[in-house]
Amino acid sequence: MAESNQTGRVVGIDLGTTNSLVAYMEGDAPVVIPGVDGLNLVPSVVALDPAPPEGGRPTVTVGNTARKALIETPERVIYSVKRLMGRGLEEIQSELKLFPFRLAGDVEAGEVPRIQLGEMRFTPPEISAYILRQLKRNAERFFGAPVTQAVITVPAYFNDAQRQATKDAGRMAGLEVLRLVNEPTAAALAYGLDRAKEGTIAVYDLGGGTFDISILKLRDGIFEVQSTNGDTHLGGDDIDNLLLAIALDEIHAEHGVDLRRHPGAVQAVRKAAIEAKIQLSTEPMAHFDIELPNGDRYQREIPRAVFELLIEPVLQRTAGPCKQALADAGITPEQIDEVVLVGGSTRIPAVRQLVDDLFHLAARGKKPHIELNPDEVVALGAAVQADILAGASKTTEEMLLLDVTPLSLGIEALGGTVARIIQRNSTIPASATEHFTTGVDGQTNVAIHVVQGERELASDCRSLARFDLRGIPPMSAGLPRIEVHFLIDADGILKVTAREQRSGQAAKIEVKPTYGLTDEQVEGMILDSFDNAEADFAKRLLIEARNEAETILSAVERAPQSPAWAQLTGEEQAAIAAARDRLAAVKLGEDSAAIRAATLALDQATRRFAELMMEAAVSVAITGKTMEAAGEELGEAVTAPHPMAAAEFK
Amino acid sequence: MFNVIDSAVPIECWSCSIGHTHSTLFCPHCSKIQPPPGGDYFQVFGLERKFHVDLPALEHEFHRLSRKVHPDRFARAGEKEREWSLADTALLNDAYRTLKDPLSRTEYLLKREGAEIGEEHAGKDRKDPSRVPADLLEEAFELNMQLEEMRMAHKMGEEDPQLHADLEQAKKKFEGLLAAVDENLRAQWQVWDAGDEAARQTAQQTMVALLDRRRYVRNLVRDVTETLGA
Predict the structure, then answer these.
(1) Complex prediction ipTM
(2) Residue A196: what pLDDT?
(3) CB within 8 Å: A490 and B96
(4) Which residues of B touch A10 (CB under 8 A)?
């Protein structure tokens, strides 16, 4: 798109491993937008409904309904897909042991893995797109207007491919991703709003599947990240898996049942493990009580002390990144003024103790910040960033976020070593210019291998992409001078341009991302749904308005059969008839606002009739009928459709 | 004032097409953001080419300029504006990163003045014996022997308290050398910043030699720290 959208709301989205949220700025405070069920958290679970009998594409459900399907139809459900984003087939083997991900068998090395879900296959970005689409719909329902632009958060330690995969998911969901924001930085923004603070803060973010530590300097509304570190495969999931493994082993040993072959049963035990973990954050003891398929019960008590011993190795894995981040920022723990805790896993008392030890908090009479809900703070911060990007807001006009790239960028040099061109913790956007030449007379292309990571050998770093500089004019070896410009943009994603300087020709670059989808592939995966464009949104609004009109019209159609109808005056009956005819006429048109207005008018006209019916129902109830039966008799006329009511779209 | 570079050829604004004679971040006529101006990192901040930089002032200017050009300020602007904002901010960040660190600033300015500085990439030049400063030859040799011994001991799972103490001692000594080099460099900055052309030439050569020495000593310190920490 050439020109960006100038208007419309920009929402902030936390696309989490376990839960996802969407938030926006309401005046000068960020708030989370609830889903249809009234809940703020949308579980990052996607389920494929049973295939319709007449064939055709099955529908996809997201969130709590999908989570319910986890135990009944585990083979049609996927969760924690964030762990697979931007990763190659060989990289995710370790995940497969712990998660019931079923990969499509025909994926070749170098291709983006696809997950088998029932009879269909999806790439991880497509799964994430379904979650994003749900959040988009929740926001649209809330605003009663289309939402096409968003800020999405990612773990600070996400590499280029993981970031690109997240952006791809946004595009598939019909969202223009204005910015990817690092989760810990977003949390700092949320905290920074209500306290005009100066100083150095550390954000310790232990979520469902990722760990980040970021150190920021706050000054005059500028949030300048000094350093960041982390582990993109460390989080509450790992704790769940420890508990799960113990339970499964014990069940096998004590009851002779190997649940590992029953995916549904494993999910039931996992659910119990998660509940036990949560319980242990507030209670000294948790209980396992699970009914096994053979009718036996597996019962066990877990004292907190045992739990803490069990998870100690997992928690210790966060210590190294914290120390490295401090070293990279060039400061000691004593120089950290505030520590902010983010992510559900920071509710665990042992985690808080570790943080206290790492930053010498209690010794300095300090406590970590937990005022904002650790599950929501990232989404709230994303909403703040969305407000900054939307511009024209007094609350955020002085705020600016300066983030860094978490990993060094390098080029594979002769002998397989890495020549680092952009160091980790460089403020982004950051750039570097390198010169290349040819090694053979008449050579017309040069290959560049770009890697990300801190190791000295390219093979130990993560391959990012192979660039093929083509169309170099044939010259003697060493004569061409190709200038390659590497730019890491504000989303932390690499862009490369090249120019042959002697001929002045812009060299053609062929980019082969080592992991990830091509533009064409992403284009093909854009969710075939109504809500990809504003025109489609209008269509959806129209369908929704017509459905509402239909509901009230059919209720009015049945009205004369009700004894209450006779109690209306002739004028009232005529007014209802007029409003009904008007709605019936407008409904044929394309103007959803007019249909809504006519629906509302008919609703108003029938108000007294509804009241009379209600009175009748109550008197009937007193004379012996149940309220429930009476309610059924009331028809839909009483519960007039609310403009913001949940509507079903297929 | 931001990087005013006199340019003989008027630069045509991409948006309003009116030429302006100064290279600036924003068009003086239509106020639209412009492509990165030419010039070096010092000019980005409107600074003279000098080794000494007032760091608090630099940070202040960095923040001020960031507020104006950062892509967050252009998230919903047109494609061209977003492109130039990205390029301008990358330049601003690169310039700030280079100038705020005394060593990278020194190397940058020396290179700008035409000095040849030993390039260093990971793996390269660490073990190049030709780079050993003559007065450190003997000590460096001994240290490398001790490091080798220590690594062997580690491999065998042995502990040699005497060797450990010796290495700690050596580490302190080389850290002291490093501090001395830094002190020397700062002295040369002053000479260069205040001096005439001849004085600058001498200071420049001294600094190049000091940087070589520094790189060598720093690698030794790093090796010792790694070995002791292992």
Answers:
(1) 0.83
(2) 60
(3) no
(4) 75
pLDDT value of position A617: 64
Q: What count of CB pairs under 8 Å joins A to B?
A: 90
pLDDT tens for each residue of A473-501: 888 888 888 888 899 999 999 988 887 77
Q: Is A308 a catalytic residue?
A: no
Instruction: Look at A400 and B86 and tell me if their CB atoms are within 8 Å.
Output: no
- Residue A514 shares a structural domain with residue A569: no
Which residue out of B121, B219, B223 would a mutagenesis test of the A interface target, given it has the greatest number of A Cβ atoms within 10 Å? B121
* Best residue of A1, A9, A402 to probe chain B, by most B CBs closer than 10 Å: A402
Give me the number of domains chain A comprises. Answer: 4
- A160 counts as catalytic: no
Rg over CA atoms, chain B? 24
Same domain, A74 and A97: yes
Measured between beta carbons, the chain A residues lying within 8 angstroms of B94 are 430-432
- Report helix angle A592-605 to A534-558, nearest 10: 20
Q: How far is CA B197 from the centre of its chain?
A: 23
How large a percentage of chain A has pLDDT more than 90?
A: 40
Residue A288: domain span = 236-314
CB contacts of B71 in chain A (<8 Å) are 179, 429, 489-490
Per-residue pLDDT for A12 more than 90?
A: yes
Q: Residues of chain B whose pLDDT is less than 50?
A: 1-8, 121-127
Q: What residue of A is the nearest CA neighbor of B63?
A: A222
Distance from CA of A203 to the nearest CA of B (A): 22
Q: Is residue A319 part of a domain?
A: no
Q: DSSP secondary structure string, A226-256?
A: EEEEEETT-SHHHHHHHHHHHHHHHHHHHH-
- Nearest chain B alpha carbon to A5: B76
Three-class secondary structure of residue A260 per DSSP: helix
The answer on A513 and A427 residing in a single domain is yes
pLDDT at A512: 62
Rounded CA separation A358/A319 (Å): 7
Nearest chain B residue to A393 by CA: give it: B73
Give domain status of residue A528, yes or no.
no
Give the pLDDT confidence of A311-348 residue by residue, as tens digits: 999 999 999 999 999 999 999 999 999 999 999 899 99
Q: How far apart are CA A566 and CA A573, in angstroms?
A: 9
Q: Do B121 and A489 touch (CB under 8 A)?
A: no
Please state, in angstroms and rounded to a whole number, the distance separating the CA atoms of residues A88 and A465: 13
Q: Is residue A369 part of a domain?
A: no
What is the rounded average pLDDT for all residues in chain A? Answer: 84
Average the pLDDT over A419-445 and give the result. Answer: 89
Domain identity same for A159 and A245: no
pTM value? 0.79
Same domain (yes/no): A149, A68: yes
Dist. CA A74–CA A95, nearest whole Å: 17
